[in-house]
Amino acid sequence: MQDGMVQLPVVNLQEPAQAPTRGGAAYKPSRFNHFHTLPTGEKLAFNSLSGGLAVLDSEGWARYTALAKGEPLDPKNPVDQGLVEGRFVVPENFDELAYLKTLHLRQRYTTEAWSLTICPTIDCNFGCDYCFQRHRVSRMTEAVQAKLLEVFAQKAPRLSKFFVTWFGGEPTLAWDVVQRLSQGFLEVAERNRVEYSASLITNGYLLDEGKVADMVRYRIHLVQITLDGDAPYHDQRRHLLTGEGSFERILANLRLFLGKPVFVHIRVNVDVRNREGVPALLKRLAEEGLAHQENLRVYFAPVTSTAPPSHGVKGFCFTRKDFARIEPEYFTLAESLGLATLPYPSLQLGGCVAAHPEGFVVEPDGTLQKCWDTVGAARVRRGQPPGIRSPATCGEPCLPALDVLGPLLRRARLLPLHLASCVHGGVSLEGGLPRGHARGEGGAGVHHLQVELEAYLYFASRTCGRGRAGTSPLHGLGKGGEEDAVGREAWTAYSS
């Protein structure tokens, strides 16, 4: 794109449209456009369906306005081409909601790919005060393992992809189960030409060279490990059951992944107690040689208290507004140290495991759950392994909360970014009854989630524009003085 449209390095067209070869067609503005005025006076344009991001100067903005008012498209004009490819304008008779719904439902109800979350154990060697699970000594029985392999073997001839997430508890406490099932899954996948891969959620304490070698062998391509700040902060909250600290050993274990074909996400859970320890953690990671590694990235998440075991930390949790203010600081520092790339809002279609009729969390005794947050909660279990073969096992209470294309959300400009959002708050854990909102904090509904995304996008747009305006990516963020109207509106609604 030249002249009126300047392409930014972060442009990421996920659902581009093809520009017509003939002129004269009538177009209309996309309902999924989001515009932000840069300090230069240019317009930063984002389309949440295509994922396209572009900068429009005065000429480009004038051309967009003309097309939005019905002026015929000129296929030879590079600005017109860019506006169409980025879906900033769409054909007059094109139903964007119907198109998005088709993409979403096709992804949710696909029968060619299958994902399972498997808990080899729900026991744990850590005593984290904010954990949402009720741990107990457990180990997946051989009978349950055999049933999982049997069901996969029955489904495999109709599958093209199979993905497993190893979860817990702490899955490394039952590593032999991971090994045995992984080997079985690989054998079935190879016989049926199914693409198999896996991920692992672990606290990282029991990792060693042998387990990392197993990950490569068993196609565990992604590992998540948590560090909650530098040692003094981390060891206060993520310690062994004996009270002994875990930071230094986990840090040493991270080096085991250097040069290995396994991608590592270092998750940093943040609340008011450890917020000051995050910068020190990032600097320590860089000092230890973990920066600028192709297979290692850091990201940040707010501590929440969604399930009863974690309710004791509710008073320490950030509001969404407060976390949105500090997260950019962390990402900016992490990026400068070579530990992260700045986040970019992208099209989310499939949703979490709860959104898929045959997506389940399998507990050690074979109990099926529809959500990671409900592992160990008998009152919301969905059945036993034979039910994996039947979409009906999902249970009716899940379905109302999963209607992300309901009347309220249809008005959201950022709806395509919301389709994979957590629906945990939309299904009551005390009986499976819909609460009427997809996620919330103190009863906040989907409208507030939309505002949350707008506030996030506002940060991203300022970050993407840095260098052009000569300002810091955090300049004026949330301070109420220099934001444009969109930013002020987002922050005002977000804090209400």
From TrEMBL:
Signal peptide: none annotated. The keyword Glycoprotein does not apply. Keywords: 4Fe-4S, Iron, Iron-sulfur, Metal-binding, S-adenosyl-L-methionine. InterPro entries: Aldolase_TIM, rSAM, rSAM_sf. Residues 120-278 form the Radical SAM core domain. It holds the Pfam family Radical_SAM. One of its GO terms (molecular function) is 4 iron, 4 sulfur cluster binding. Its cofactor is [4Fe-4S] cluster. This is Radical SAM domain protein. It comes from Thermus thermophilus (strain SG0.5JP17-16).
